[in-house]
NADPH2:quinone reductase (Nocardioides marinisabuli), 338 residues
Amino acid sequence: MRAVVYSQTGPSSVLSVEERPLPEPGPGEVRVRVVRAGVNPTDWKFRATAMNGPWDEVVPGQDAAGVVDAVGEGVEGFDVGDRVWTILAQWARPGGTAAEHTVLPTACVVPLPDEASYDLGASLGVPAVTAHRALTAGEGASRLAPGTLAGSTVLVAGGAGAVGNAAIQLAVWAGATVVTTISSDEKADLARAAGAHHVVNYRTDDAAARIKEIAPQGVDLVVEVALAENLALDVEVLRNRGTVAYYADNGGAEATLPVRASFAKNLRLQGLLLYTLGEDLLAAAAEDVSAAVAAGALRVGAEVGVPLHHYPLEETAAAHDAVEAGAVGKVLIDVATD
């Protein structure tokens, strides 16, 4: 099979396409014939700075969609021919999704609803599961379904990003009023396409005043991508007993907390990282995300604010470079025809 590999960390030039033996699934594993692979910032960061384990060689990629074509001993719930999407395919193992086949434990494989394209399936994983955990980090919503966030207001920082877009779509599906912050008219259009009810340009608006005008009692939850830059704003606009769920360190590695203002409101700061969530939260996210997909509430494409950028397997290095350069939308690798 063809696989993209690297044996040392560094720039995208360390990636090469090689022929490798077809892997066989062991007990509790399935083999997936990859149709489409997704590229996330975590992929190029692992490649550039950390192998993610004591491996001689790594196939990058956490996310993909494809078809089960072999089943290991003791596997239940999956059969050859099943369409699936993946979660954390390359975490703590060397074989990721930038390959014609990948072997994964069943905990990392999720049935792909019939209504979903492979483009959508490969776009779920990291963005959608991160968004799910952020949206369920506050009071009163451990799971997502229609109505679970009814009556609440969610602020999504950076609504034009992949996680931000998924958070908007999932929050709207769950019944929330969604406010998002963006930095340009182009990104405002993307956030509105995703379903945001209110868009605030933090470069031209008084963001705090505008958000408090929209939500006079304060927002219930903030999905935060840049805690260092936005924490003071988040504290100001949150309601009593609100939550900041932060998943990245864009804008700085350290944040200054307004101590009195935050404890006076009984606020919660909830950090999240997919790799350490635990199987229970990953399983809950997989179930809810799949339900949203089946309902048509979670989609990709320019019409919902997620432009798609396709690269052949041989150009995976260019796909990594595009994500590292901040490509707006979703970067996908076309591994096979549908």
Summary: The CA atoms of residues 24 and 107 lie 17 Å apart. The chain has a mean pLDDT of 96. The chain has two domains: 2-124+304-334, 128-275.
